[in-house]
Amino acid sequence: MAATARDEHDNTELTVVADMWSPACTAIRTFLARNEIACRWLQPTEAAGRELLDAHGFGVEDTPVLFEGKRALKPTGEEELAQWVGLHAQPSTDHYDLLIVGGGPAGMAAAVYGASEGLHTVLLERWAIGGQAGLSSNIQNYLGFPDGITGSDLTDRARRQARKFGAELVISLYADRLRPVESGFAVHCTDDRTVHARSVIVATGATFRTLDIPSVDKFNGRGVFYFSALTEAPLCSGSDVYIVGGANSAGQAAVYFASCARKVIMLVRAKSLATEMSSYLIEQISRTPGVEVRTGVEVVDAAGDTHLEQLTLRDRETGAVEQVSANWLFAFIGADPATDWLDESFARDDHGYLLTGPDIATVEGAKSPWPLTRPPLHLETTVPGVFAAGDVRAFNGHRVAAAVGEGSMAVMLVHKFLHD
FAD/NAD(P)-binding domain: from which residue to which, for each copy (predicted)? Predict the structure, then answer.
């Protein structure tokens, strides 16, 4: 791979000047942290921050701004930011044997196995390698790691392994359309570039659900965050942290925050953590000092000036409400399949998950029948030659190990498709 702009500036420090309560600052902080790019952060009100802005002709209103040596950037999007910090942001060619959309565990497993088995493989990921798993503070039930492993560590291992075998990992390129063509498939991206491949694996996972409360929504990135425990935790030291959700991701975040927050308060709509959370994690939470679990409670309102300052909670059984002071709210309330970019030739179940293999024939309400005389391969969608793996697929396991297994299996099925 050719040297990038960042390769030429390795001895200088990347600095970001931004208001910590700015949603744009949050987006950049998350992007850099998840792509393992170290930097220092300065507030525009700090003397050092103002000095940098003045020296490069920027004002406070221009933040966030990135600085490195004599370079400066006010980013306008993920691709510009990715290129500026030296990430691989464009495919090296327009034609591949295998194109993978999505860089979570399923996509990365497919990249490793595809490249290691001789397929010219490219993976497109909009944000960062790792998917939701990359944001996990501690994955404790993944085979081979008895003491657990953080999502970032697992992601780093997967990234290095895929690159070792020659897989091309493209960050910031977002696929928005897929169509069959004579040579296989064409995947159109938001930068108007089209990438062609003989086969495709869709591993786009799911998008985070939000609380959908107008007064809460206005604090997104300003005290309200979704699935971002690892990137925001350093800022929460010594503060009270509220966590909404009762599944494993919420429990893992609670344990992680307990090491730095003054107190962690879990707000769970169900009457018990046992409704959705693994028993090992329930036991761990019960042994963790500083974690309070409040069941049967939901958030109904939020207030503040420049950032979150207060939450209104309601008891779901009695209807009683209370106001609590809060600067930090992290919600882990599930996700929906990221399939909106695919057209109706891809059959889905009633929740939007892609139907594959034998499920195409057995699930009622499929929008598109299987078009060939041969039966679909196990993870094949209703578009022959396009496979689905991980959380985007109907009847998936919602576990890292399941996603890795499906990504690996999908490559085996790709070989069968290409050789038949």
Answer: 96-407
**What's the CA gap between 86 and 89, in Å, rounded?**
8
Q: Tell me how crowded residue 59 is: count the other CB atoms within 10 A of its CB.
A: 11
Handedness of CA 304, 308, 309, 310 (dihedral sign): positive
What CA–CA distance (Å, rounded) separates 118 from 110?
12
> Are the CB atoms for 349 and 363 separated by under 8 Å?
yes
Query: Is the pLDDT confidence value at 231 over 90?
Result: no
**H-run or E-run covering 86:** none
Neighbouring residues of 219: CB distance < 8 A, sequence distance ≥ 6: 302, 304, 307, 308, 329
Model pLDDT, residue 111: 98
The residues pairing with 201 across neighbouring beta strands, listed in sequence order, are 100, 387
Q: What is the pLDDT of residues 287-319, one digit of tens each?
A: 999 999 999 999 999 999 999 999 999 999 999
Q: Which domains can be identified in the chain, with CATH numbers?
A: 6-84 (3.40.30.10), 95-207+335-419 (3.50.50.60), 214-331 (3.50.50.60)
What is the average pLDDT across 226-247? 87
Cα torsion 133, 138, 143, 144: sign: positive
Confidence grade of residue 10 (pLDDT, cut at 50, 70, 90): very low
Burial code (b: 16+ CB inside 10 Å, e: under 16) for 158-174 equals bbebbbebebbbbbbbb
Task: Give the model's pLDDT for residue 34.
Answer: 87
- Taking the CA atoms of 388, 393, 394 and 398 in sequence, report the sign of the dihedral they define: positive
Burial of 78 per CB tally in 10 Å (0-12, 13-18, 19+): buried
Listed as own residue / partner, the contacts of 232-237 with beta carbons closer than 8 Å and 24 or more positions apart are 232/26, 232/29, 232/328, 232/330, 233/137, 233/257, 233/260, 234/260, 235/20, 236/260, 236/261, 236/328, 237/261
Sequence-distant (6+) residues with CB within 8 A of 214 are: none
Q: How many residues does the chain have?
A: 420
User: Taking the CB of residue 290, how many other CB atoms lie within 10 A of it?
Assistant: 16
> Is 371:363 a contact under the CB 8 Å cutoff?
no
- With a cut of 80, say whether residue 262 has pLDDT above it: yes
